């Protein structure tokens, strides 16, 4: 598991829809889609296999799960380097987040655009594992880092992120059924 810290919290009730940075909006939307897929994957109590979601130059999208002894390192290397035909990518890994309330399970979602001016959004999606006495739950996502944008509009980024969550219909249903609308 990865250790992580946060900088801000995503609020699904945020109402600001004026997105000035289409690229960053697309990164956040894609991050939401694959974060939802990750939530769906851990909702049954299984460990998350690190995965990369990507959008190619030709508009096609794909996903690659990374398994093996060096899966996390391979995933991080592939995400960091990108591929010639990738426009954007999202890396989702299982981690622990250290918060004021203690150590919390979380999905760490790294999203990047591989354009000339690289932009990235890193988020955490805290969750309570299914093995907990209260059962599986998803908490509010948290922004950890936004790079390549001056003065990020976190409300607009949250809107984009949740639009991505909602675009993954099956995963969004799991997310919404287990959402605990509180901050951890």
List the helices and strands and how they pair.
Layout: E1 2-4, E2 8-9, H1 22-42, E3 51-56, E4 61-65, H2 71-81, E5 86-99, E6 102-113, E7 119-128, E8 137-138, E9 142-147, H3 154-167, H4 169-177
Parallel strand pairs: 1-5
Antiparallel strand pairs: 2-9, 3-4, 3-5, 5-6, 6-7, 7-8, 7-9
Helix pairs in contact: 1-3, 1-4
Describe this structure in words.
The protein is α+β, with helices and mostly antiparallel strands. The chain has one domain. The chain is built from four helices and nine strands. It has helices at residues 22-42, 71-81, 154-167, 169-177, and strands at 2-4, 8-9, 51-56, 61-65, 86-99, 102-113, 119-128, 137-138, 142-147. Strands 1, 2, 3, 4, 5, 6, 7, 8 and 9 form a nine-stranded mixed β-sheet that branches. The relative contact order is 0.26. The model is unreliable at 1-20 (pLDDT under 50).
Brief write-up:
30% of the residues lie in helices and 33% in strands.
Instruction: Compute the separation of the termini in Å.
Output: 19 Å
Fraction of residues in β-strands: 25-35%
Categorize the overall geometry.
globular
Number of strands: 9
The H/E string reads: EEHEEHEEEEEHH
Query: Which value, in Å, is the CA radius of gyration?
Result: 15 Å
Oligomer: single chain
User: What fraction, in percent, of the residue positions are helical?
Assistant: 25-40%
Largest sheet: 9 strands, mixed
How many helix segments?
4
Low-confidence stretches: 1-20
SSE class: alpha+beta
Instruction: Provide the residue-averaged pLDDT.
Output: 85
Number of domains: 1
């Amino acid at each position: 598991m990865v250790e992580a810290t946060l900088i801000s919290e995503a609020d699904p009730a945020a109402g600001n829809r004026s997105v000035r940075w289409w690229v960053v909006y697309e990164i956040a939307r894609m991050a939401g889609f694959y974060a939802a897929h990750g939530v769906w994957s851990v909702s049954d109590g299984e460990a998350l296999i690190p995965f990369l979601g990507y959008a190619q130059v030709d508009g096609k999208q794909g996903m690659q799960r990374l398994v093996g002894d060096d899966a996390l390192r391979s995933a991080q290397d592939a995400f960091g380097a990108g591929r010639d035909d990738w426009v954007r990518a999202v890396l989702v890994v299982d981690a622990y987040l250290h918060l004021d309330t203690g150590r919390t399970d979380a999905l760490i979602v790294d999203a990047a655009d591989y354009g000339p001016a690289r932009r990235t959004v890193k988020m955490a999606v805290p969750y309570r594992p299914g093995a907990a006495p209260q059962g599986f739950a998803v908490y509010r996502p948290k922004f950890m880092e936004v790079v390549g944008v001056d003065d990020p509009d976190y409300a607009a980024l949250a809107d984009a992120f949740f639009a991505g969550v909602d675009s993954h219909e099956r995963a969004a249903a799991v997310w919404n059924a287990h959402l605990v609308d509180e901050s951890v």
